Amino acid sequence: MDQFESLVRHIFSSISAPDAQPELTFVNTDQNLLLITVSAPSDRVGQLIGKEGKIIKAVRTILNLSFPTVKYQIDFGTPAPTATAESNTESTETVEVEITE
Prior knowledge:
Strand content: 15-25%
Radius of gyration: 15 Å
Largest sheet: 4 strands, mixed
Order of helices and strands: HEEHHEE
CATH class: Alpha Beta
Shape: globular
Distance between the termini: 25 Å
Oligomer: single chain
CATH superfamily: K homology (KH) domain
CATH architecture: 2-Layer Sandwich
Helix content: 25-40%
Structural class: alpha+beta
CATH topology: GMP Synthetase, Chain A, domain 3
Number of helices: 3
C-alpha cells in the first residue's frame, strides 16, 4: 500500500500550487476500502477536481490502471482553521463529489 499512497501524494502535490499543498489522510475501513481524504482550501478544491471533473477522473484512471486491485474512495474537504486566542471554535466543510464514468 505504500506505493499506492506515494503515488497519490505525488499526483496531488503535482496538481497543486506550491503554496497550497493539500493534506492527505488515508484510512482503511472494515470493507477493504481505502478512504482518501483530500483537505485543501475551498478555493483550491476546484483546481484538484477540474472543469467537469476532468482532473479527478484522470487521477482515478491512473490509479485504477496502476493498482487495479486496490479499492478506494476519494473525498474532498477543507482543513479546519487554526485556533487563535480570539476564537477556539473549529469548523469544517465537506465537499462531496460524485463522478460517473
